[in-house]
């Protein structure tokens, strides 16, 4: 990943063609980029707390599962679309 890409959050990286309401995402503009892609031994309490107040939480998790995403989505961690931590 380049320095330029690290300026973006998850929702910034989503395809523009996707119809989800990503503008409402609670993580939009979040500066803690690494918190959304934790190491296996790393807690993701920070990301989980941000997701807890997100109005599109359910849709976000469904998107991650349906499109094979990795990282924290909808308050859970995914690995290529499979939920690995709740
Ligand atoms: S549920 Fe979490 S990861 Fe998904 S858009 Fe909302 S804040 Fe971002």
UniProtKB/TrEMBL annotation:
* Cofactor section: [4Fe-4S] cluster
UniProt keyword Calcium, yes or no: no
Where are the membrane-spanning stretches? none
Transferase: is it a keyword of this entry? no
GO terms assigned for molecular function: 4 iron, 4 sulfur cluster binding; DNA binding; metal ion binding; protein-disulfide reductase [NAD(P)H] activity
Give the highest taxon in the source lineage.
Answer: Bacteria
All copies of domain 4Fe-4S Wbl-type, residue ranges: 26-83
User: Could you state one GO cellular component term attached to this entry?
Assistant: cytoplasm
> Example GO biological process term?
cell redox homeostasis
| Keywords, in A-Z order | 4Fe-4S, Disulfide bond, DNA-binding, Iron, Iron-sulfur, Metal-binding, Transcription, Transcription regulation
Task: Please state where this protein is localized.
Answer: Cytoplasm
Q: Of which family is this protein a member?
A: Belongs to the WhiB family.
Task: Indicate what this protein is called per its UniProt record.
Answer: Transcriptional regulator WhiB
Organism of origin:
Nocardia aurantia
> Its gene?
whiB_1
């Amino acid at each position: 990943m380049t320095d330029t890409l690290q300026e973006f959050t998850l929702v910034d990286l989503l395809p523009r063609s996707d119809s989800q309401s990503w503008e409402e995402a609670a993580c939009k503009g979040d500066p803690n980029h690494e918190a959304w892609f934790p190491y296996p031994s790393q807690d993701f309490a920070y990301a989980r707390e941000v997701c807890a107040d997100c109005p599109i939480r359910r849709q976000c998790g469904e998107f991650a599962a349906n499109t094979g995403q990795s990282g924290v989505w909808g308050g859970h961690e995914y690995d290529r679309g499979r939920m690995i931590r709740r």
